[in-house]
Amino acid sequence: MKQLVIFDLDGTLLNTIADLAAATNYALMQFGYPSHETDEYRYFVGNGINKLFERALPEGERSQENVMKIRSKFVPYYNMHNADMSSPYPGIEMLLASLRRKGIQLAVASNKYQEATSKLIKRYFPDIDFTAVFGQREGVPAKPDPQVIEEIVRMAKVSKAETVYIGDSGVDMETGKNAGVTTIGASWGFRPRAELESWQPDFIAGSSEDVLLFLDTL
Hints:
The chain is α/β, with parallel strands linked by helices.
């Protein structure tokens, strides 16, 4: 039986794409750069906000200096507006509550910066007891490096064999495989199912109910 389930945040627990797009477009326009349609951001996110800005900037403008300029406008704006249009995916609150009732520990491992990760979890899941809520932190490599998963496993005092990682992107599936834990692809998220299939996760879930059914078979 699994004892720990670790979730990605954006595209897995929460649909945050509209707020991420709005904040990035706001920052881009402050410097005269063109904005993007919300749906385009599904392919920009997943590797941390600096990589998001690099992808959103025009080719030829993707310098570290410009990335940091966009970040300087994005972070204050997003801190104020990160819950304007975001919401949990259908059934997520039920899934988290069901897992906790079964005595399974829960955690979050996201490439979103730590301040926003903590804020969103507290806002949308105030009654859920998480063992750890980790976003991108200074000195800790971003996913798909497995360090964050390994840190959570140690905190939870369980084995990797007892651990599941759930995410919506190839980055998440690669992270889980690098960590040596069971992987579940969330096909309701930002990336297409084919991207998840290419990484051959242990299971691909179409809904939160599918996650529960799969875990019950393990």
